[in-house]
């Protein structure tokens, strides 16, 4: 596994850990709010109830974040860990990067490549290649 993929996996683990810290904090806050004696003042009781629900939602969001990152970690390991799985084709044409291209003065950095047909034909939809959550819009694609 390459260093860049390992760094990505390490970063995913770090982010999962960050969510885990927040889960622990929100669980403690929920326990504290649930143990709090119910106020006889309806306004204070409503505020306490709203705070409890808001904290439960934050906990749910953190748990959802963990689940999403764990799935992403599994997908990266399974689908992108092997360098052959990351190879989507061969470069067809790639001119040198150009700066301050007229008339707008933008940077121009583009290229064309030939996709490995056996791997990508099912995802090919005209000039858009579906890479899961990433869409790469290409003006010209040739399948090998």
């Amino acid at each position: 596994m390459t260093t860049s993929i390992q760094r990505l996996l390490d970063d995913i683990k770090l982010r999962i850990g960050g969510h885990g810290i927040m889960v622990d904090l929100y669980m403690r806050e929920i326990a504290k709010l649930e143990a709090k004696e119910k106020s006889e003042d309806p306004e204070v009781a409503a505020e306490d109830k709203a705070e409890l629900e808001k904290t439960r939602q934050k906990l749910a969001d953190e748990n959802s974040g963990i689940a999403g990152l764990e799935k992403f970690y599994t997908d990266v390991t399974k689908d992108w860990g092997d360098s052959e799985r990351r190879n989507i084709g061969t470069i067809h044409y790639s001119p040198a990067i150009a700066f301050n291209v007229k008339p707008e003065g933008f940077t121009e950095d583009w290229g064309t490549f030939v996709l490995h047909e056996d791997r990508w034909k099912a995802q090919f939809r005209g000039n858009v290649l579906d890479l899961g959550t990433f869409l790469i819009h290409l003006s010209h694609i040739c399948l090998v």
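Residues 134-144 have pLDDT under 50 and may be disordered. The helical segments are 3-35, 42-80, 83-86, 117-120.
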